[in-house]
Amino acid sequence: MLILDNLWIIPLLPLLGSATNGLLGRNWPNKIVNSVAVGSTGFSFLCALEAVREFFQLSADQIPWVKQYFSWIAAGSFRAGFDLQVDQLTVVMLLVVTGVGWLIHIYSTGYMAHESGYYRFFSYLNLFMFFMLILVLAANYVLLFVGWEGVGLCSYLLIGFYFLKKSAADAGKKAFIVNRIGDFGFMLGMFLLFRTFGTLDFVTLFDQKHAGGAPSDAMGQLGTLTIACLLLFMGATGKSAQLPLYVWLPDAMEGPTPVSALIHAATMVTAGVYVVVRSHVLFTHAPTAMLVVAIVGCATALFAATIGLVQTDIKRVLAYSTVSQLGYMFLACGVGAFSAGIFHLMTHAFFKALLFLAAGSVIHAVGGEQDMRKMGGLAKKIPWTYRTMLIATLAIAGAPLLAGFFSKDEILYADFQSPYGGHILYAFGLFTALLTSFYMFRLIFLTFFGKPRFDEHHVHVHESPWSMLGPLVVLAVLSIFGGWFALPAFWGGPDYFAGFLSPVFGAKEAVAGAEEAAANISELTLAMIAVTTALVGFGIAFWLYIRKPGKPAELVKSFKGAYTTLLNKYYVDELYATVVVKPLMWISTEVLWRGVDVRAIDGAVNGIAAGTTGIGDNVRHTQSGNTRSYAVWVVIGALVIITIIFWPYLKPAAVGMVR
Amino acid sequence: MIPTHYYLILSAILFGLGVVAFVSRRNIITIFMSIELMLNAVNLAFVAFSQAWNRLDGQVFVLFVIVVAAAEAAVGLGIIILIARNRQSLNVERVDLLKL
């Protein structure tokens, strides 16, 4: 129980790495910065592995394993401790975060080699790992919120890494501010939970005496639990880029590509899904909230996928794809298939990190160009990048036996069968799968096939170094085999992944399982439908971009309105600018700045100062330096005091004199 | 037996003279003397009350005042001598370094 007793060491290692590099690394050569950053994350990964090994030796009644290290906040009946918790859900998240995080650290050593601010980049990246690990290990909402805010901070720092570029700095601010809106809801949700149940510790809160035993809200009823869930979900929409707070994620692509892979694809943006899954006890008691989650997830999946169809920036396509896939995860949570959501979270972490890293490798190869219209024909020149990216694309599109196939299939199956789901959700999910397959193959065809559309004399295309290709290959292997936990389910065997997580979700999913048995349509049939859909998407992309390369331009002409709407992302940014940003700016400048700040606050302060100066200016003349004038003042003062003291006796006399 | 208020009236007159002298004269020595006059006017009042109520407190006070006045005279005269040496004048109007 070496690591399980000292869980703090897992997040502490990256924190130490971050502090070392951040404080001392300025003048160090890249090699030392590398060893500190990659070493600390690597050790953290090893510790996580050891923790998981020890975890498997625990007996069932020791799970969830909670270690209380110290009391952080104690006020009245409220206690928030630095408590870390490990259960099956944490194990999955822990391995994904440390494992993928470590691979991306290695990749970054190659990708960032020629950038200035090298030590700064790794310091932020390690800090991110620290906060992310706090987030997944936290045993109460308060500590989780620390990690939640911390990853938001690191996201801001890393999006604005090239802070001299205005668009990057703006994107960082946008991400931070949009996240704050969500965090506001998250905090309110926490307050409401504490007010209702008097605790924020997961184990206590979810047990039968507290929320776990509380009566469920009816559908459409806005009970306390429903409101708390909706508020928590508001936080999740901010962090996980769901409608209506998704706008920051595409802009976040201004950051370096490894950051997009680690933070904005594999780990941080899945924190919202994690919170919803972690709070599944609450959500299952609030069917209205579940429905909202499912609808928002489904709508986001479809919405983002349609925007992804026409984007030309390779990273933006992937960004919208991420938003869309996150929508899938919420869709899964919303129909009660929490383990399917986490399963997709894990496989998505593999293939989306791979896609981003491969995209980074492509960008690296063509000298910083991100526009797919200026790529093409790269397959032969950068074969390893091509192969790994193709695997990831097949995985996300849902090609049979690859990771994404299993997880997406489980989600679609749950949509179809779950008591929370419905055939409409299933249809939308399926259509999104078609779009996903289309835009991903469009990306592949535009980038790697056809004639080169860049200037071959100036751009020297080169394969990336092995520090970058190594992680790609590892992630490609994971993208292939990462879904095989669920493989036996197809011939009636156990789904190992869902089985592993079942202690966390308990009876709720067992109910869904019973329905599965009674289902009149088998998972295999639905899988066939999904694969066919993906094939259709592939076929359309193949036909449009390989067979008839002139066709897309014609289509653009005939559907001009739809195309420009999609290209401008449904004008959502413009809408937000008019409805929210501009009025806020006006209130800030005209009312708060010019009115309140300048007139009221500055006016009061300056007025008091001017008044004091004026009085002093007049009164100083009494200080003449003349001893006798001072004496006169003393006499006058003494007379005044005497008059005041003796006033009761003098009054009759004075009144008499006036008469 | 002289009534007490006679003493008090005399004391008030002496004190008033002291105040008037203090604010109207320019010579430091004269001002100094007017302070002594005021102190002794107060002493007179103390002694008168002591006599009137047949208690010793007032006389004790007077002794204290005399002691303080003696000390004050010593210090004060010292200062005056220094001022006189530095400025070759005893006019208070010219001692006005404290003005703003």
- What are the secondary-structure elements of chain A, in order, as H or E? HHHEEHHHHHHHHHHHHHHHHHHHHHHHH
CATH fold description of chain B: Helix Hairpins
Note the beta-strand portion of chain B: under 5%
The count of helical stretches of chain B stands at 3
Mean pLDDT of chain A: 87
CATH class of chain B: Mainly Alpha
Structural class of the helices, strands and pairings of chain B?
mainly alpha
Strand content of chain A: under 5%
Average pLDDT metric of chain B: 89
**Which regions of chain A have little confidence, pLDDT < 50, spanning 5+ residues?**
509-515
Summed up, the helix count of chain A is 27
What's the CATH architecture name of chain B?
A: Orthogonal Bundle
Quick structural summary:
Helix content of chain A is about 70%, strand content about 5%. By secondary structure, chain A is mainly α. Chain A has a two-stranded antiparallel sheet with strand order 1-2.
Characterize the structure shown.
The complex is a heterodimer of chains A (659) and B (100). Chain A has 659 residues and is mostly helical. Chain A has three domains: 1-159, no CATH class; 166-567, no CATH class; 625-659. Chain A is 72% helix and 3% strand. Chain A has a two-stranded antiparallel sheet with strand order 1-2. Chain A is globular. In chain B, 78% of the residues lie in helices and 0% in strands. In chain B, α1 (4-24) packs antiparallel against α2 (28-53) and α2 runs antiparallel to α3. Chain B has a single domain (4-89), classed as Helix Hairpins, CATH 1.10.287. Chain B has 100 residues and is mainly α. Chain B is built from three helices and no strands. Chains A and B meet through α27 of A and α1 of B.
